[in-house]
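If your schedule permits, I should be very grateful for your opinion on a structural question. Please examine both parts with care and let me know of anything in them that strikes you as inconsistent. The record follows directly beneath this note:
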Amino acid sequence: MDYTTLLPVILAAVFAVNQALKTAGMPSRYAPLVNIIGGAIAGALAMMGGDYIVGIVGGITAGLGAGGVYSGAKKIKEVNRLKNYK
């Protein structure tokens, strides 16, 4: 399987782990750190036997994307909530 095919899977996995940790009581301020570290680890594992640097950088990018997905969805939810009050 091509590495670029795995990046969305890494993003979804990091997002899910982060949400599970927040639900378990992890403070939200640690979420970006968890995204970066989790993405780097997942990216390195995805590149087993290949170029680990590419895997780590891609994983960090996917981890940062996971944080962006959350903040983007949160912002859309907030805008919709404000529209309903008008």
Remarks:
- The chain has a mean pLDDT of 85.
- The chain has one domain: 3-84.
